[in-house]
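Let's do one together. I've listed all components of the complex below, 566 residues spread over three lines.
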Amino acid sequence: MNAIKFLFAAYIATWLIHAFYLGTLVRRFSRLRRELKEIGKK
Amino acid sequence: MKWLFPILSILTAILLAYALYQALVVAPTDALQGDVYRIIYYHVPSAWTAFLLFFINFVASIEYLVGAKPSARSAAKWIVIAIGVIGVIATFIPAVQQMLPNGMRPTAVATTILLIPTSYFLIGKLFPGQRLDVLAVTTAEVGVVFCTIVLVTGPIWARPVWGVWWAPGDIRLTSTLVLWLIYVSYLMLRRFSSGSQTQVLAAALAVFGALDVPLVYFSIWFFRTQHPQPVIGGGGSMDPRMLHTLLISWMAFLLFAFLVCRSRFRLELLAREVEEAHAMASLAGSPAATSLPLHRSPK
Amino acid sequence: MKSLWRVTLTTLKKDIRLEWRSKDALNAMLFFSLLVVVIFAFSFDPLSEESRHIVGGLIWVAFLFAAIVALNQTWARELRNQVLDAYRVSPAPANALFLAKALGNFLFVSVLEALMTPLFVVFYNLHVLGPAWQLIPIGLLGTWALVVNGTFFAAMSVRTRSREIMLPLLLFPISIPAVLGMVAGTTAILTGEDSARFYIVLLLTYDVVFTTACLALFETVLHAE
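Okay, and this is what the predicted structure of the assembly comes out as:
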């Protein structure tokens, strides 16, 4: 049914948005930890 | 305590999977809309979560603003207590009870009103000083994520059911859009300003946003009575099995939101630690640094 | 209270005098307002029957653009000469500074609107089908709604990066209920199809709420370090 496409689109869109945000969190975490290590070395 | 986070994550994943199963399989098919209505099990819990997060941001912002001045802080404390007391008493007055929408029990309203002073004091206790501001930025960011999901799933739901992606008179979706805009501007303000003024300015903006929301609601409500529009998301009573599934879905997303906020909170604390380390490191280069205790002790 | 008004009026008179002496900014903004009206006249066919329904929106969008241009340079002069720092340490009430700025902006934007309105009437062959006198409270309340928050947010954005773009980013979301009131009210009066009474009350409520909020929080924002 055509309408079911929208149902799956909504569910997939939700998880894509969450995944994207969690990805930015992971990226920011690793960048900060790296920075902290570099400052510690100096 | 280190094992708590992974265990909660697994629990959340299980709960989310269970909620998905409930939403797609167990919940009955809607008579009018068919199976597309199941979008509601992602759309509405995301909205409730976003509103809760923005509410926490609002409380944290107020507490941050009044934190500096003891007179303002005690005034705010008494105002919040007054809201709680008057609000609860009001729900027992028949005149007020008549004004409530159908189906809303006065005790439910009283409990919700009690949440205001409760959250005010809880947040003040759990997040002292700077942590209020960390809480503010956390809830704003995660709130925007959930709010984005509401604004994406809303039109996706509207299109097959009503034939339009967007109806300007749809009071709920339009109010949510304005709330999203306000908090995106909040995040931009935080990004574009520097120093400790960021926190005060952002808190002031959050207060303005909170004052704006009821006005937005009213303006669109009246506009809608003049220009009738389709209502997306339906209204009125709900099949108890659907309500049951909705609540399960909300619990799952709430737990998920809690974990995401916890991560973001940790991230912000780490960011501030790095900033401080930078500042200390640059001080170490200056001649006056000889008297500063600059060696970081292992934690 | 008396000293509040005295400081406000003094600051306001100083601002007006300064603006009048350097008429460049004034002239540039007047010309900008004219250009906006002309561009709209080319973009939205004035002769169509539907134009009466959209002119309300067009007029206020044009006013909004003009207001942003005016508001952006509200604090520029103060920032250049470190006047803000002087204000922070002086015993003058911070709200006097805010009121002076807001009133000055209100006068200035009202002048721009008074000049743009006849142009709209000309280009769009407007005649008002509803009670025309109601346009006055809508104009006054709507302009104050934009200016009071605009002055406050301009003060907020003056110490951020990209401060010119920061002002509309902050102002537009918060102004949405007011804009809805202005546009719907103006359209109701122009077309004569609805009563604008609710929108006037909405704008009045908006103005009271946000004027109070601005006065309550301006000092905090001024001293934010």
